[in-house]
Amino acid sequence: MTILEKLLTILDNELHLKGEALNFTEDTKLRGSLLQLDSMAIVSVITALEEQLGFEFPEDQLDGAIFESVGSLVSCVTRLLSTDNAAGASV
Questions:
Q1: Of 14, 17, 18, 60, which one has the fewest beta carbons inside 10 Å?
Q2: Which residues contact 1 (CB under 8 A, 6 or more apart)?
Q3: What is the spatial distance between Cα 11 and Cα 41, in angstroms, rounded to a whole number?
C-alpha cells in the first residue's frame, strides 16, 4: 500500500467519510473544502498518521498549509518518514 493509499484510508476513517476519501487524488483540496476537517479532526488525523505510519510530527512543523490538499499532506508525511528513517539508520 502506498503512502497516498494509507493516508486516504486514514482520512476516510478519521473523518467518517464512508469511502469518499478513497477516491481523492493529490489535487483534492482539504482545508476549507471538507466540513469534517475541523481542528479536532486534524488532531485525530495527525494522531492516526503517527500511530499507523510510525513517525512523529514535530510540533514546530505543524502548519495549516500541510492540510491544504491531499498532495501537500502526502508530501509532508513522505518527508517526515524519510527523515525519521534516516535518523533511525544513523543510530
A1: 60
A2: 9
A3: 9
pTM above threshold 0.90 = no
Task: Report yes or no on 75 lying in a domain.
Answer: yes
Q: CATH no. for residue 19?
A: 1.10.1200.10
CA distance to 19, 24, 36, 59, 84, per residue, from 12 (Å): 6, 10, 10, 24, 25
Over residues 25-63, the pLDDT tens digits come to 999 999 999 999 999 999 999 999 999 999 999 988 888
Residue 11 lies in a domain: yes
What is d(CA 38, CA 35) in angstroms, rounded to the nearest whole number? 7
